[in-house]
Protein 1
Amino acid sequence: MHLETDTIKEKVKSYILQSAYAGEDLILDDSLIFQEGYFDSMGFVMLISFLDEEFGVQVLDDELIEENFESINAIIGFIIRKQN
Amino acid sequence: MTHDKPFSRDIILLSDVEYVVNEIVLKLKQEVQFHLKRFGAVIGISGGIDSSVCLALAVKALGPGNVLGIMLPEKDSSPDSERLALKLAAQYGVEVLKEDLTQILSGFKCYKRRDEAVRRIFPGFDSSSCKMKIGIRQGSLYSNLPPVFYLTIFDKEGNQQDHILPVKEYLQIVAASNFKQRSRMSMLYYHAELRHYVVIGTPNKHEYEQGFFVKFGDGGADLMPIINLYKSQVYQIASYLGVPDEIIERTPTTDTYSAEQTQEEFFYQMPFELMDIYWYGFENGYSPEEVAAVMGEDQEHIQALFRNFERKRKTTEYLRMTPISDF
């Protein structure tokens, strides 16, 4: 499955906003979703499952780093790198 | 924020253990006898340091004849727990009884529900010959990302396999395992009500504030005498009250999963001696700069650590809440 960047962005953003019970004005594409407290441990585990179910992206141990998950933009970048 | 004391490595150690013990004992006696108007106390004893100190404090407050120690093993419990609990009861001269919870937990399908989730990750898992535990990986403590849980199994030869726990399996394993703490609580209340006693809960400061307890499980009790004590302080009091050395020297475990697992590995991610100092700095508003300088650590690490503590406290608030009733 290889999705266009815009489709990925739309799906990730919608998932993040819905899961965090937050409006679009609160979480921007580069907001630090973990550092700012929108997502906790359970949110992180659910996000990992979402990436697998929605994009077929399986997260490896050494990929569990901030650079891959800290914001909507980081997550989109991670999905694209994994799909390539 | 200004502080009376500069931050130091021994800032949390009690300077007058006897005074603190006497204060707790006095309050325990007043609450049980005059406020709650009960004849005594029951305590679940696991052979661990926290329940041992609670039992020793209760004996000092209420007398050995008014304290009942209850051992609550089940098929995954360490055999050491019972031996040490008996040693403790003998030391303080209290009555002790044993309630094996294995059949009760089987009735709840605790093991079956847990093992079903484990087998979705490791299809070959057989709980009669394999052991399992869940835990978090070291290294995430200074990260802004919350920890991720891993499932680890050991086959009968001791070979280990690990896998990140997907959310569905994580929730099922935790929900099933929590039958253990909730069954212990039910049994403690049975024996307490039978004697018109209170139930003494054993969580310490870290367990309570960081949410390392089961709501209405080990978090269900009438009094929690060591809830404001750091683990180092619990050890100081244990020595003062004469808790057997073997219990003091034992590594704290979760006593929840079939494979041996320390509390550090499962939850805290650092030795309690360090956790105590950092948590004290965090909750008393010492700056990451001052804490980092004393501990020889990187300031950014301490900042991330404090954020991690804040997140833990915030995300576990649900566990400490009483039912919402202001409707």
Protein 2
Amino acid sequence: MSQNRPPIGRQSKPSFARQVMPAVALTAVGVGFVSMLDGSTAGSVGLTDATTNPVVDPNTPTTIVADPSTTAPVAQPTNTTLAPTPVPATATPVTAAPVTAAPANPGACDGDVVASPSAQFRYGVIQLQTQFTKANVLCNVTVLQFPNDRRTSVQINNYALPIYNQEAAKIHSAKIRAVSGATYSWQAYVAALQAVLDSRP
Amino acid sequence: MTIALNHKFVAKAMGTAASLHIDDVCDAEVAEQAWRSVVDLLWGIEQKFSTFIETSEISRISRGELHLLDASREVIEVFDACTWLEHASNGAFRARRPDGTLDPAGFVKGWATQRASRLLTEQGLNNWYLSVGGDIQTAGRQSSGELWSVGIVDPTDDQQVRCIVEIPEGFAIATSGVAARGRHIWDGRTDQFVSPLLSFSVVGPDLMWADAFATAGFVMGAQGSIWVEGFDRYQAIAISAQG
């Protein structure tokens, strides 16, 4: 048994220079990374815990179903104005939503596109883009800005380990091969992320 | 005979799911045989240690039918390690329930997974990971040549990954948290089930210790990371609620 035991305690501390060096080097790398990723997509992997509000990649907008009652939980907070009264087209949409060039049709979702003001919610800043039919019926909601994951903070004392913050990214990230978390029961396994990884070819 | 690059297996073991991913180019039969040996070992350990099985040695010890010193070598080994850990963690880790009955479950899973891992190495496999309920021992790398990357589950949403860790070759990772089974970790010092943390992961060379340190470190809360990092090559990742 005893040969399995890890050594307890550190015998001596590394010199001050050796303690500071990695921090300096990592900061330089971090600055490089941030400048590289600046303006890039949300959910990018970075070495620093990005506290800036990510803007959702305009090329891949998260689209929510047309029915306004199903826009929860994002649209749930009452301080967003989702009233089906389109603001005149002076409001500049943040992204060019993929407006379908469908023929004129009263039910078609081809009316005004309006970006809501960014609103601060409990979990961060949310900005929505809404679209209306010609009859001023809300038909499409796109999330332009989604909160960064601010509910939790990740703390790691020593940066010897390659660790990346994953912001609001799903398991579909090709990078991950396994997941570690609080133990799931056999019954819960089916719903656990590990099951996705086990079944993926 | 079928040669393949990736082999994946899942089975029920120790009350959870055991998953094995082998990224070696090998015969499917070789991979399957290795997997069967892993499952047999895990099931055998479960028969000895489960508190849910009436005839297990642990149940018999708890009922007073078997003295600890008359137990099998494995049971004595586990309790030896648990005793050491109780001291090393200053009581934060305990292999007894608040009512006094033995429950080394917090230690056995990681210990069993590490033992099962040895079988894979003995059978000549070099690149794989074995996960038992999220306690993971790795060997080598992925077939892509990258290190095994493990997502740590967001404790506030178990369908999301909070961060990704690249596991150094041959290292293990284990996580303790509140998410899946509720608050199942108690503080041996106060007999209460509490922690200011949401989850606590430990990466290190041996899964048995990574798992045990995760359990103890989670209970310690803010001091857990510092305690874990006092052990050479062990590293902690704590996730807490942001106020």
